[in-house]
Write a structure and sequence with these properties.
mainly beta; three-stranded antiparallel β-sheet; 6 strands; Ig-like_fold
Length: 75
């Protein structure tokens, strides 16, 4: 199985954007990034890179951002 991403960090770029980066785990084919606000999942993204920029966020809102590694995405 793939290991979890390490050292996940977020950096505010402006009022509506944040950059999230992490250290790649071994034996993974990519990452799924999920973010929620107000208990509602707003978006789920996939990348093979070690960072992603989230845009079009609502200013003054609290977001929960989760990063998961995967070997194969479910169909």
């Amino acid at each position: 199985p793939s290991g979890p991403p390490n050292n996940v960090r977020g950096f505010v770029l402006n009022a509506t954007s944040i950059k999230v980066n992490w250290t790649n785990s071994s034996e993974t084919n990519g990452y799924v990034i999920e973010y929620t606000t107000g208990g509602v999942t707003r978006n789920v993204l996939s990348t093979s890179e070690g960072e992603i920029v989230l845009t079009d966020l609502s200013p003054m809102s609290t977001y929960t951002i989760s990063v998961y590694s995967y070997i194969d995405l479910p169909s």
